[in-house]
């Protein structure tokens, strides 16, 4: 039915990735990536700060956004039923998917029913989350990403590393090389004389994608919002690729997380102000497309909406953790995070990187794997993410809560070195006589070390910790001994 894809799978997957510290260590050694990330995040964060400062009622807008999302989450069942009813009335077909497998199967059946072996896609994090491209690929259907950054990631056989700018870790020269070597394998090649000027790179992508847009019979999209009282789906994007996907093909399949619902059409007013300023640092969004089922003789005539749970109701069940479902994927928290800025998005092992990934992913996937257990620790807890979040998600509190959960889950097994050290500290501080004994032992040890001021690397379980620090030797006498010897410092 189809030609093999010369690129192999369309995107690399995150399955089985090692824990965050391991991935971050590799990323830290990549100086070019760190330089790209530093430049990009600082540019976007400065733009965001400037346009947010222009809005005197910004804090009221944030509160309004958070309240609206909380209202949706508290009554999600009712709003979803309303959304389905409205979409159906307008001629769309609604499908429900409990998990990734079910969602992929539904989409695959819909695509197969059209008898095609390729689809175009407008950026959709939900489809990345369920690894739809890989599922389509396995069935011989090529899924072509049409967002410029997603195209770079796909052609480079890479993974997204940012919510909004998936190829943020790539420089212009790298992008030119990817286009030059890979575009011709899957469609129109890049022009021979293409330089790494952004305008020329964008032009190459435009020409390459145009062929795919004009040929495609089926498009797959996500949605930023789904309005319950009108049955309207909304996509915001900056390049116009979304509009091509959403209007040219005959069949449009939208894969939407169930938390994307807004109660009323009027609610869009708040979010259309919050999202562009928080994400791209723009006052308004360049391309906003809204559709409510198929339109007579215009645009896609088969409109399908797949509403995906995939762990969201599990997150919803936690009254504190559920606030992560307010997220509108603006990426502001990534751009201010000192950990993300250095480690980059791949280290988070999920389509959702940065601070929101560190709290959303372990809730969606659970904390059974090494990477998901490590994510709540991928933060300095500085609170910058909370300050910029347009829907006031208290990410630091969620991180602490998830850390507690991870620690609690390991209480029954063999205690960790850290747990044993904490237990010893608790014993020492619980009684002054214990503390005195410990201090005496420490000062005796100190005398044996002579004139040394710092311990070298400590062998055993503390080796990794002490290998990166100068651990000072304990003082030769305790404060109490000094107090007694000097008569309170008077001698
Ligand atoms: S958590 Fe807040 S700041 Fe981060 S992506 Fe989501 S909405 Fe944006």
From TrEMBL:
It holds the Pfam family LutB_C. The keyword 4Fe-4S applies. One of its GO terms (biological process) is lactate metabolic process. It comes from Calidifontibacter indicus. GO terms for molecular function: 4 iron, 4 sulfur cluster binding; metal ion binding. NCBIfam families: LutB/LldF family L-lactate oxidation iron-sulfur protein. Residues 324-393 form the 4Fe-4S ferredoxin-type domain. Residues 66-93 form a coiled coil. This is L-lactate dehydrogenase complex protein LldF. Keywords: 4Fe-4S, Coiled coil, Electron transport, Iron, Iron-sulfur, Metal-binding, Repeat, Transport. Residues 405-485 form the Lactate utilization protein B C-terminal domain. Transmembrane segments: none annotated. InterPro entries: 4Fe4S_Fe-S-bd, 4Fe4S_Fe_S_CS, FTHF_cligase-like_sf, Helical_ferredxn, LUD_dom, LutB/LldF, LutB_C, NagB/RpiA_transferase-like. The keyword Transport applies. Residues 82-308 form the LUD domain.
